[in-house]
């Protein structure tokens, strides 16, 4: 079994050790609950954006900040796409961090370039952005976001799905989407085209959000080759009619409202101070 969080940000404001230790804990608990082999790795798919760490940042930081902690970095070649972590508190277990980027299209639609270290430019049209990501041999995912699948953007995504090819392309569900909201109609439209839905936490740039990494994600009944984990995962995700299952819990209503208000207040304060908003 492969457990992975398909939408991860490691913001520079996060306490890195706590974030990664928390991911180990979430993966450990999920594997124990489901009777999954403890040696099966948990995977964090990065979506680097403004103010968050790239895989290159983590390569440098984990060479320094991991000293004196339970974390232990293990180098993996894998074309430079991943880092392999061990933790003293979770013997025999591992977490793999895979490179990726969050891109914003000309239509203001977010697209994740997953398992890709090549830079994808912002502000291109949605089809061109997805083609560029898949042209790199990576995976493109349009993630759900509060208020971001409405109006014009919803219509653009709907139109794209009508002719979208399922290979290397997914929609994304989020641990931020509370249970009281109806299931997005775009999910049904995607599944009708045999486009699967991948799940991830999508932590926000707020204090304490780093503890959520790995708490909501996707399970695939397959094996991950730890000598080349990112490439191995890409191969699994490229299989036709792939079957995926989500795990974990969504935000509760009050938590969702509180986080959204905090995020808007943070952005308002940045604008007031003359800083550009995300």
Secondary-structure blueprint of this entry?
Elements: E1 2-8, H1 16-34, E2 42-46, H2 55-64, E3 71-74, E4 82-87, E5 94-98, E6 100-104, E7 110-114, H3 126-135, E8 139-143, H4 151-161, E9 169-174, H5 185-192, E10 197-200, E11 216-220, H6 229-237, E12 245-248, H7 253-272
Parallel strand pairs: 1-2, 2-5, 8-9, 9-10
Antiparallel strand pairs: 1-11, 3-4, 4-5, 6-7, 7-8, 11-12
Q: What is this structure, in a nutshell?
A:
The chain has 278 residues and is of the alpha/beta class. The protein is 31% helix and 22% strand.
| Biggest sheet record | 7 strands, mixed
Report the strand count.
12
CATH fold-level label = TIM Barrel
Which percent range describes the beta-strand content? 15-25%
Given the structure, what is the number of helices?
A: 7
Which percent bin holds the helix content? 25-40%
Q: How widely separated are the two ends?
A: 36 Å
Low-confidence stretches: none
* Top CATH class: Alpha Beta
Radius of gyration: 18 Å
Number of domains: 1
CATH-derived architecture: Alpha-Beta Barrel
Shape assignment:
globular
* Overall mean pLDDT: 89
Decide which structural class fits the backbone.
alpha/beta
Spatial order of the strands in the main sheet?
3-4-5-2-1-11-12
Helix/strand order: EHEHEEEEEHEHEHEEHEH
Core attributes:
single chain, 278 residues, alpha/beta, TIM Barrel, seven-stranded mixed sheet
What can you tell me about this protein's structure?
By secondary structure, this protein is α/β, with parallel strands linked by helices. The longest helix is centred in the last third of the chain and has 20 residues, at 253-272. The protein has a single domain, classed as TIM Barrel (Alpha-Beta Barrel), CATH 3.20.20. The protein has helices spanning 16-34, 55-64, 126-135, 151-161, 185-192, 229-237, 253-272, and strands spanning 2-8, 42-46, 71-74, 82-87, 94-98, 100-104, 110-114, 139-143, 169-174, 197-200, 216-220, 245-248. The termini are far apart. A hairpin with a 6-residue loop joins β4 (82-87) and β5.
């Amino acid at each position: 079994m492969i457990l992975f969080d398909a939408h991860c940000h490691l913001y520079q404001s996060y306490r890195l050790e706590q974030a990664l230790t928390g991911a180990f804990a979430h993966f450990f608990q999920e594997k124990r609950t489901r009777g999954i082999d403890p040696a099966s790795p948990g995977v964090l798919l990065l979506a680097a954006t403004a103010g968050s760490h790239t895989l290159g940042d983590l390569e440098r930081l984990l060479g320094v900040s991991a000293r004196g902690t339970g974390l232990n970095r293990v180098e993996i070649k894998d074309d430079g796409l991943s880092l392999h972590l061990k933790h003293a508190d979770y013997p025999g277990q591992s977490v793999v961090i895979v490179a990726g980027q969050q891109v914003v299209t000309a239509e203001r639609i977010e697209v994740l370039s997953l398992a890709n270290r090549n830079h994808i430019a912002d502000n291109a049209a949605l089809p061109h952005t997805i083609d560029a990501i898949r042209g790199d041999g990576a995976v493109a995912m349009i993630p759900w976001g509060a208020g971001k699948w409405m109006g014009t953007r919803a219509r653009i995504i709907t139109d794209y799905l009508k002719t979208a090819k399922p290979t290397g392309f997914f929609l994304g569900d989020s641990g931020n989407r509370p249970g009281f909201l109806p299931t997005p109609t775009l999910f049904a439209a995607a599944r009708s085209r045999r486009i699967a839905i991948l799940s991830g936490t999508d932590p926000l740039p707020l204090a304490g959000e780093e503890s959520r990494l790995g708490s909501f994600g996707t399970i695939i009944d397959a094996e991950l080759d730890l000598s080349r984990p990112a490439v191995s995962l890409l191969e699994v995700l490229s299989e036709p009619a792939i079957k995926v299952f989500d795990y974990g819990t969504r935000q509760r209503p009050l938590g969702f409202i509180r986080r959204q208000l905090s995020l808007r207040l943070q952005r308002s304060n940045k604008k007031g101070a003359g800083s550009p908003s995300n």
